Amino acid sequence: MIWDQLQLNPTITAALQRAQLKSFKEVVCVSGLDLQRLTGLSQAEVQEVLAAAAAACRSHSPVTALQLQRGEHHGYEFGLRLGVGCPVLDQLLRGGLPVGGVTELSGESGAGKTQLGLQLSLSVQYPQEHGGLNSGALYICTEDPFPIKRLQQLILEQPVLRSDVPPSLISGIRFSDQVYIEHTADLESLQVCLSCRAPLLLAQGLVRIIVIDSVAALFRCEFQADDWLERNKQLLAFSSSLRHLSHEFNTPVLCINQVTDVFNQSADSLGPSSSSVCPALGLAWANQVTVRLMMRRLQGMISRGAQTSALRRLEVVFAPHLAHDGRDVGVWREGVCGVLDAE
């Protein structure tokens, strides 16, 4: 029998057989409470089953080049992207965020970073044919309270943002039930979340994107300038956990990052030094991300009907599959959208 491969306690194996669960994938897609109800096992026994089944799902057979080319390999979704929900931005990103690897979104306060993180937490819940991954989102807040009112507004405005999706499909998605929120006040609680809570949600198929808002907050408050060596060690351990989760569960990870000022003073200039910004945490962090995006707030306002928005710009700083490019965007009631030339 398939459950004999897991080398579980015979009592647990018998309970799984009585519940008529016939595959490892079927188990990891069932919530812990439902699995406990179906099998009559204790909570500790259910956690043991979930961990063993998830490990069995990951230990698949080798993949051939032909399977990769055709996208046939179980567990490997070739070229899969998570769309933003805006055609202009999805075109910029060639379909959206890659499911494998860590994407960083940096920018100044008020640039619209959290708005885009919330939008992706809803976009992930759509079927793949509409740019989603047919699953939920884990949203980890490290500094500010979760913006629940804004999320509710985005949910109500989904028919406006996603006019390409049948209204019956939108009304059938329980968006708020599939956004799992965690608050981590220090690095220790963040690592516990990434090592315990996140793998369980991913293994059960309940989430398919991790959003961390923001990655710089905890490192900035817990380390002083003289602690740079220890900070870099912690930063590498943190990024290693993110990459492991992304590749193990084939899921996109979005890290929202703050920025720091960079001052340039030319030798012959008599005026004040000019200032620009760059993502926080330096090269130690920059070398760990696969895609780096930046949102900037520009001068001027734009309008759309009765709505107005400050003009912003989303830019690709670097990515292995994207050209360095950008699009002007606005933040509207329905979400972050690219600005057309006519606007």
From TrEMBL:
The keyword Transcription regulation does not apply. It is found in: Nucleus; Cytoplasm. SUPFAM superfamilies: P-loop containing nucleoside triphosphate hydrolases. It comes from Kryptolebias marmoratus (Mangrove killifish). It holds the Pfam family HHH_XRCC3_RpoA. GO terms for cellular component: cytoplasm; Rad51C-XRCC3 complex; replication fork. Residues 78-259 form the RecA family profile domain. This is DNA repair protein.
